[in-house]
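To the structural biology subgroup,

Please find below the input and predicted structure for Thiamine-monophosphate kinase, which we are adding to the shared reference set this quarter. The sequence is reproduced verbatim from the submission form. If anyone notices a discrepancy with their own records, reply to this email rather than editing the shared folder directly, so we keep one authoritative version.
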Amino acid sequence: MLGPGDDAAVIGVPDGRVVVSTDLLLEGRHFRRDWSSGHDVGRKAAAQNLADVAAMGAVPTALVVGLGIPADLPLTWLDALADGFAEECAIVGASVAGGDITRCDLVVIGVTALGDLGGRAPVKRSGARPGQVVAVAGRLGYSAAGWALLEAGVPLGSSALQEAVAGHRRPCPPYAMGPVAAELGASAMLDVSDGLLQDLGHIAAASGVRVELDPQAFAVAEPVAAAAKELGTDPLEWVLTGGEDHALAAVFPADVRLPPSWQVVGRVVEGEGVLVYGREIGRTGWDHFG
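Predicted structure (tokenized):
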């Protein structure tokens, strides 16, 4: 209702409730300027926050952005960052409502996202029950595969490898599937930011249940498979433990008819933790303080 230019913005809240989430991105930890353009970083920073809102079953409405930047940061990079934010927000009909900027030794980006539930109940992490199914919407393994290619300095000679790297630079969350899942009766949901196993562990812990996954149910995308072949690794490791794809993982009643965008990959049973049938997984995902 009122955007940048005054001391504060004004955001309409038709539902009467506001979904709020916030994230930090630090240069050298979440992105590298020699690997990603300003436009890439803007898209990524917006995406990871918009996905959090969608994972509550809400529709994103606005972002506010805090920036810390070095004094010698090229203006062209900053312009590209703003364009990236605007382009990603346009996908869901949101916008950057305002923010703040200060001098810093590294590029630091703090984003707060707002969303509207549209009359729906928020989909929390604590609603999973035994007998329900676990499903995923969106891409898994792209970001981890792309990061591994960049870290190894592999020449990106094929379109598949280039697509994997693009997935690391600019995730593609399935925003619309968040509200869809809420309408279909999802009882628990989150976005996959730190790795599917680790994030499903949050649902298992919050709900007091066990999540069992079938590794045969996961379709490994060609870019992820190509990167794994190039680097001699198991692509399923990236699918199960790679973060920053911002896919959505949700729990549904077993009798719900899911649209093709949702792929059933497991079930909820009594117990605790996350189990992958027939696989020994050494790590579960990203540990921020490991």
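Summary notes: The first strand starts at residue 19 and ends at 26. The two ends are 43 Å apart (CA to CA).

Regards,
Lab coordination
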